[in-house]
From TrEMBL:
This is FTP domain-containing protein. Belongs to the fucolectin family. Acts as a defensive agent. Recognizes blood group fucosylated oligosaccharides including A, B, H and Lewis B-type antigens. Does not recognize Lewis A antigen and has low affinity for monovalent haptens. It comes from the Eukaryota. It comes from Macrostomum lignano.
Length: 188
């Protein structure tokens, strides 16, 4: 069992979802305790206080439609949720690409129904231009749930996004196009 800082059950759940081997968590006000399945098998489970126990059960949500600010080089919006995680734009034909017209690019997708969104995993383009996603706003139904502000480009990253809604969007905060290869969105 590992203690983690957290200000609420949702933060505790997010922490568990990003740690390999985390099976669930207990929550006492101000204390988040993460555990693996071995806590039950090895009889390591002890609690001196009454607590709530939660098992982590994330659900990958499905997009049903999408749109983007523009299309360049056949990089259509549907490629971002086609299941193809190849990060080579030219080799995999699996990435989206907006036009580089000097305006910030954006991409948005619609869920089948409103849901409580916990986190988003983004597969960046790896063969070129990865820093284009260093500064962006992630929104749900027009409300920012996470602001990305990085100095080093990422390949694959998971961002928390505590929001309820049905339309997810990525808005570039730089005057660049958006190129990315897959977006996965999860609910607790």
């Amino acid at each position: 069992m590992v203690s983690a800082s957290g200000i609420g059950r949702l933060n505790c759940a997010e922490d568990c979802s990003t740690r390999s081997g985390c099976f669930g968590f207990t929550w006492l006000p101000g204390l988040c305790r993460l555990f693996s399945l071995s806590a039950f098998y090895n009889l390591a489970w002890e609690s001196s206080a009454e607590c709530d126990v939660y098992t982590l059960n994330t659900t990958k949500l499905n997009f049903v439609a999408c749109n983007q600010s523009s299309v360049m080089q056949n990089g259509v919006c549907e490629r971002a949720f086609d299941g193809n995680k190849n990060q080579d734009y030219w080799g995999g034909l699996s990435c989206i690409h907006t036009d580089n017209n000097g305006q910030p690019g954006w991409w948005e997708a619609q869920l089948a129904a409103p849901a409580q969104i916990s986190h988003v995993t983004i597969y960046n383009r790896a063969d070129c231009c990865s820093s284009r996603l260093n500064k962006m706003s992630l929104t749900v139904d027009g409300v920012e749930c996470h602001r990305v502000d990085l100095t080093v480009a990422f390949s694959i990253a998971t961002f928390s996004c505590n929001a309820f809604g049905s339309k997810f969007a990525m808005i570039n905060l730089q005057a660049f196009s958006i190129t990315m290869c897959e977006v996965e969105i999860y609910s607790l």
